[in-house]
Design goal:
The structure holds two protein chains of two kinds. Residues 1-19 of chain A have low confidence and may be disordered. Chain A is elongated, with a radius of gyration of 37 Å. In chain A, β25 and β26 form a beta hairpin. Chain A folds into three domains: 41-165 and 183-237, 2-Layer Sandwich (Cytochrome Bc1 Complex, Chain A, domain 1), CATH 3.30.830.10; 260-467, Metalloenzyme, LuxS/M16 peptidase-like (Cytochrome Bc1 Complex, Chain A, domain 1), CATH 3.30.830; 480-682, Lipoprotein localisation LolA/LolB/LppX (outer membrane lipoprotein receptor (LolB), chain A), CATH 2.50.20.10. In chain A, 38% of the residues are buried. Chain A has 20 helices and 26 strands. By secondary structure, chain A is an alpha+beta fold. Chain B has helices at 71-78, 90-97, 122-135, 140-159, 166-174, 188-193, 196-206, 222-233, 281-294, 300-308, 340-356, 361-378, 382-396, 401-410, 414-424, and strands at 30-33, 39-44, 50-57, 101-106, 111-118, 212-218, 254-262, 268-274, 312-320, 327-334, 429-437. The longest helix of chain B has 20 residues, at 140-159. Classes of the chains: A alpha+beta, B alpha+beta. At the A-B interface, α3, α5, α11, β9 and β10 of A face α2, β5, α3, α4 and α8 of B.
Chain lengths: 684, 439
């Protein structure tokens, strides 16, 4: 019957169109594939040059690398000498002037780099003879040309100038200088001064001293046979002569005693570049190194599942990426956790980084994490073998660091053997959330104050030199006058303040010797002012102004009031001095924006009859004067701060007054306006 | 069957018509379409026991609405948030627990997703990508988090970097009608305004098999992989025909000059010229032209501006190829105290030189060899192979270009280069920007 036949046919068809898969769970993997480590060949020339060869014919490329295993050396006031020596290697040889050298290399379509530790040349394998010959020529026959050095210096200075705005460069400079210190080669920075001091002879001496076959490895990778390699190496390097290198002892950088906060201000920063970092002892290939690698993968490795990524990116959205690294090094290693986060969450991001570090110190990691990380390390190991350069690098490391010959063959087995207890032990050694340099490059004005909770904030410039806290740009149109007018408005307004005919203020301080009371009574129009200081009920001293008459004295007798002091006393008559100051703008100077006690302030300098100008600090936010700084004759400063402004009948006055000389604080107890005042107070 | 491999296995095949004397190594592959329109490309490479599983969706920032810029890239982040069968945060976990890596990137023309997995996890990769294509799921928490992450990405890569937005500054002036005027990262305000309805619509329009290319390269077997692909992707319904913008950017008809103030120390000079779209004869000529100017230490701009006259710290040019007509750009960082006008003058002298005399034979050989090296070394990894097979299919209409595109470059003559300079590098077709320090 047709209908049922058709429907049967459709039933048969339908399952074929819908795949018979269960999408609800992930499919299981097939059997684990194995991979081959690949082989390399290594031999040594009589002159000490060690040659490593990895043949690979997948693509027609040949890569040559001459690598010098050199001890780090302090260069002090000529920091950068080795760097310039390395750069000069690419600027011509005795057989090939610079232009010719560059053209020959470009004509082959080859890539070419030189550095203080060697030469790199890579190109199509059909150029193998020429590539090897050029490599030998560059390595053995440098010309150290003054003109080229001058050009390089100029370029480097321009590069340094550009890097002053790059937050990552700044962060790297600070990290080097702070983690290693200036007495260790790793901590030295090139500066304009050190660059200026470097001469061509310095570069030549560096080359003569360090570029020697006994410290050198020639790594040959790619589309070439062993026999061809041997022939070309013999021709190029067989007659290269040298000497043995002496290794000098080095200082060991140490952990900071407590967390320190180092801040480099970058105007206009919308993110903070954070680095939490310190030195560690972790020689390459040492027994701890593998557990340290696994630990770092869990904390801040490249996967999205790492703790730092999960916390700071996936959970809190602070950042595009947060990673950590535990670096081994034959001399001194390093831990760094880093992230770029938006300004407002800088302190929270630091908190979370330290939290994740501490968590791995205090508690075991989970089996799931350990499993995932082991798979990740294994996967990366396998992927790396796609590039024949990897085998060469393994051979190089084995030779340089005296690793067991089967170190890399056993690597994954050793990774697999790491336990949660091993990780906790490694965390105790390498995670130091209480002994870290917390380095931040960002908005020093708005962000730095929030980091005080981790430690006192020290500011640095882009080259790790200590500097003062940064200022900030004021809005256009800001003048000393506008700042004072804003203050007057904040205090209650011109009209309200103008209505003050008389006032009386009582201010108290609690001292170890009993209570101090300051009483100030003023009749504005008559230029009458009484200021008395009482200890308990005893008058300790007083100052009186009565029109053009003055008195100052106390238990010790009367004191002369000189002309400058008289002028200063007149300044103190208005309830807020700004009322007077705005009438004489010539005596004012706008100094700029600063951060003071965690607040943005605008600083105005004011003429001071009795000495150097006073600096008055006005809160950008409220407009109130929050501090006054008075330089003294012995070069110090008396700083008064004014907090907790309160309303007294429409007029705002500060109720908490402190200064940096007396060890006790003053509190405004009462303020009365336009009440009858006893004339006898002002009798002189 | 997946089997053990020796590292040294190569795939050398003597090339016919290979340039110079190097043997041309052909990348062989199989390709086919599923009935729902999904294009599939498979390539065997047993160097290591890994596979690269990649999907290219033919949607990029040029497909966005002007008030929803940044959407394609934002969406790329959202596509990691899971599916009907994959919970939030699990997508990454599956790949990482297998020991693989994953990521994605968005350009003006396409969004590209990729995983590299041990080859015994091939099926996992197919399940993950098919889940994404069939029924990706995103919830409010994911949207909010990724919004923050993308904002930080913009700050980190663009806003907080010196000169970070230079290409954006160029494009918004060069393209007045075409969607290329905005950058894939988009605007923060538009990101804030995006709603659930927006992404559902975008997903249904663009994340469909008839708009996708599945490209897999590595330690696989063609026949069994084909079967697995059919198993996981056949049941995904074809979508509607995909709308593509048809805006034609009119000629600039003049020069635009402007100054941008940034947190920088060194001024910079940027010049951009309207150029033909990628894969055209003129595009190849322009790219070779850029090699004459700035590839290698002996290149013209490096020699003149950086080395001899010491006016610039860095100077380069490049052809920015896109599906619709693109740009040819110059970028030079001035040395301290150097006036950008001085640098611009030298750039123009170099352009005039290209127009008035053909390049030398030596220069032609040089750029051909540099280009050849790029092609010989550029497809060494399975990830690159998968990506370029997909790119060549989508943009060039033919995945075989992975083996033959190099010939198009080799066919460019000295006259082609001179004519390209005359046609495109003209004052009435450009934007000139000076970057200056603030204050």
């Amino acid at each position: 019957m047709k209908p049922s036949f058709i429907s049967l046919l459709l039933c048969l068809l339908a399952p074929a169109l819908q795949a018979q898969i269960d999408r609800s769970k992930a499919p299981a993997p097939g059997p684990e594939p194995s991979f081959n480590m690949g082989t390399y060949y290594q031999y040594e020339l009589p002159n000490g040059l060690k040659v490593i060869v990895v043949e690979n014919h997948k693509i027609a490329r040949l890569t040559l690398q001459l690598y010098l295993d050199l001890p780090p050396v302090l260069e002090n006031d000529k920091a950068g000498t080795a760097y310039f020596m390395g750069e000069l290697l690419s600027k011509g040889t005795k057989n090939r002037p610079k232009d010719k050298l560059e053209e020959e290399i470009d004509l082959m379509g080859a890539s070419f780099f030189t550095s203080s530790t060697g030469v790199y040349l890579s190109g199509l394998s059909r150029h193998k003879a020429k590539l090897m010959e050029i490599m030998a020529d560059v390595a053995r026959n440098p010309t150290f040309d003054q003109i080229e050095l001058d050009k390089l210096k100029s370029q480097t200075l321009n590069g340094i100038q550009a890097s002053k705005e790059d937050p990552n460069s700044i962060s790297s400079n600070l990290r080097q200088a702070l983690v290693y210190g200036s007495k260790h080669p790793y901590g030295e920075l090139q500066t304009e001064a050190t660059i200026a001091a470097i001469q061509v002879d310095d570069c030549k001496s560096n080359y003569d001293r360090f570029f020697t076959p006994s410290a050198a490895y020639l790594v040959v990778v790619g589309d070439i046979s062993l026999s061809e390699t041997k022939k070309l190496v013999e021709t190029g390097f067989g007659k290269w002569e040298g000497h043995n290198l002496v290794k000098l002892p080095l200082d060991k950088p140490t952990l900071p005693a407590a967390n320190t906060v180092s801040f480099a201000h970058k105007a206009g920063a919308v993110q903070s570049v954070i680095a939490v970092t310190y030195p560690i002892e972790l020689p390459t290939g040492s027994p701890n190194a593998i557990a340290a690698t696994v630990l770092n993968e869990i904390l801040g490795g490249s996967s999205f599942g790492a703790r730092l990524m999960q916390n700071l990116r996936e959970d809190k959205g602070f950042t595009y990426g947060c990673r950590s690294s535990i670096s081994s090094d034959p001399y001194i290693g390093e831990f760094t956790a880093s992230a770029s986060v938006r300004n407002e969450v800088t302190d929270s991001a630091v908190t979370e980084i330290l939290f994740e570090m501490k968590r791995l110190v205090d508690d075991l990691a989970t089996e799931d994490e350990l499993k995932r990380v082991k798979a990740s390390i294994k996967g990366a190991f396998s992927r790396r073998l796609e590039n024949p350069q990897t085998i060469a690098n393994y051979a190089l490391n084995t030779a340089m660091y005296n690793l067991p010959k089967d170190y890399y063959a056993n690597y994954l087995k050793n990774v697999e053997a790491v336990t949660l207890a091993d990780l906790k032990a490694a965390a105790a050694l390498f995670l130091k959330p209480s002994n870290a340099h917390i380095i931040v490059v960002g908005d020093g004005v708005n962000v730095a104050p929030s980091l005080e909770k981790f430690g006192a904030v020290q500011f640095y410039d882009a080259f790790a030199q200590p500097v003062d806290a940064p200022g900030f740009a004021l809005d256009e149109g800001t003048t000393a006058l506008s700042v004072l007018e804003k203050a007057i408005a904040a205090y209650g307004g011109k009209d309200v303040l103008a209505k003050v005919k008389t006032y009386e203020l009582h201010t108290e301080a609690t001292t170890p010797m009993g209570n101090l009371l300051l009483k100030k009574v003023v009749v504005v129009k008559k230029k009458q002012m009484y200021q008395g200081m009482f200890g308990g009920n005893n008058l300790l001293n007083k100052t009186v102004v009565n029109g053009d008459q003055f008195y100052s004295g106390g238990a010790g007798g009367e004191q002369e009031v000189d002309e400058p002091t008289k002028a200063r006393l007149y300044d103190e008559i208005p309830i807020h001095q700004e009322i007077l100051l705005i009438q004489n703008t010539a005596s004012l100077q706008l100094l700029g924006g600063e951060v003071f006690n965690g607040q943005k302030v605008v600083v105005v300098a004011v003429n001071n009859p009795i000495g150097p100008a006073l600096k008055r600090y006005y809160s950008l936010e409220t407009g109130y004067m929050i501090a006054q700084v008075e330089p003294t004759t012995d070069g110090k400063e008396v700083i008064w701060t004014y907090d907790e402004y309160r309303d007294f009948g429409g007029i705002k006055l500060p109720t908490k007054l402190k200064n940096n000389v007396m060890p006790f604080d003053f509190e405004l107890q009462s303020a009365n306006f336009n009440e009858k005042v006893s004339k006898s107070l002002f009798k002189i | 069957m997946i089997h053990k491999c020796l590292l040294a296995i190569g795939l050398i095949i003597s090339g016919i018509g290979a340039h110079g004397q190097s043997s041309r190594q052909m990348i062989e592959f199989t390709e086919f379409d599923l009935p729902n329109g999904l294009h599939v490309i498979l390539h065997e490479d047993h160097t290591t026991p890994n596979v690269a599983v990649t999907v290219l969706y033919h949607v990029g920032s040029k497909n966005e609405k002007p008030d929803r810029t940044g959407f394609a890239h934002f969406f790329e982040h959202l596509l990691f948030e899971g599916s009907e069968n994959i919970g939030r945060g699990e997508f990454d976990k599956y790949v990482e627990n297998a020991g693989g890596t994953l990521n994605a990137n968005t350009s003006k023309d396409r969004t590209f997703y990729h995983e590299v997995l041990p080859s015994n996890y091939l099926e996992l990769g197919l399940w993950l990508e098919s889940e994404r294509m069939l029924h990706a799921k995103v919830d409010a928490v994911g949207i909010e988090t990724q919004r923050k992450v993308v904002k930080e990405e913009k700050r980190q890569r663009v806003d907080n970097q010196p000169y970070g937005n230079w290409l954006g500054e160029v494009c918004q002036r060069m393209y007045r009608k075409h969607p290329y005027q905005w950058q894939p990262i988009g605007s923060m305000e538009h990101l804030d305004a995006a709603t659930e309805a927006d992404y559902v619509g975008f997903y249904k329009t663009y994340y469909v098999p008839n708009n996708a290319t599945l490209s897999i390269a590595g330690d696989l077997d063609i026949a069994s992989t084909k079967a697995l692909v059919e198993k996981y992707f056949s049941d995904i319904p074809r979508g509607n025909d995909v709308p593509r913008p048809s805006v034609v950017e009119p000629a600039l008809g003049g020069e635009i000059r402007d100054t941008v103030y940034d947190n920088i120390q060194l001024p910079a000079v940027i010049m951009a010229y309207h150029s033909p779209k990628q894969s055209t004869k003129d595009a190849y000529a322009l790219e070779m032209l850029s090699y004459v100017l700035s590839r290698g230490q002996s290149a013209r701009l490096t020699k003149t501006l950086v080395d001899d006259k010491q006016l610039a710290l860095q100077a380069f040019s490049f052809y920015y190829g896109t599906e619709d007509p693109g740009l040819f750009n110059f970028f030079a960082l001035c040395n301290m105290g150097i006036d950008p006008a001085e640098v611009e003058k030298v750039l123009e002298e170099e352009i005039d030189r290209l127009k008035s005399e053909p390049i030398s034979d030596m220069e032609l050989t040089k750029i051909q060899n540099i280009m050849e090296t790029r092609f010989v070394t550029g497809f060494a990894s399975i990830q690159n192979r998968a990506e370029y097979l997909a790119n060549y299919h989508v943009y060039g209409g033919n995945a075989s270009l992975i083996n033959t595109e190099v010939d198009r470059y080799m066919a460019v003559t000295k006259d082609d280069i001179m004519n390209a300079a005359k046609t495109y590098l003209n004052d009435n077709n450009r934007v000139v920007l000076y970057y200056q320090p603030k204050k």
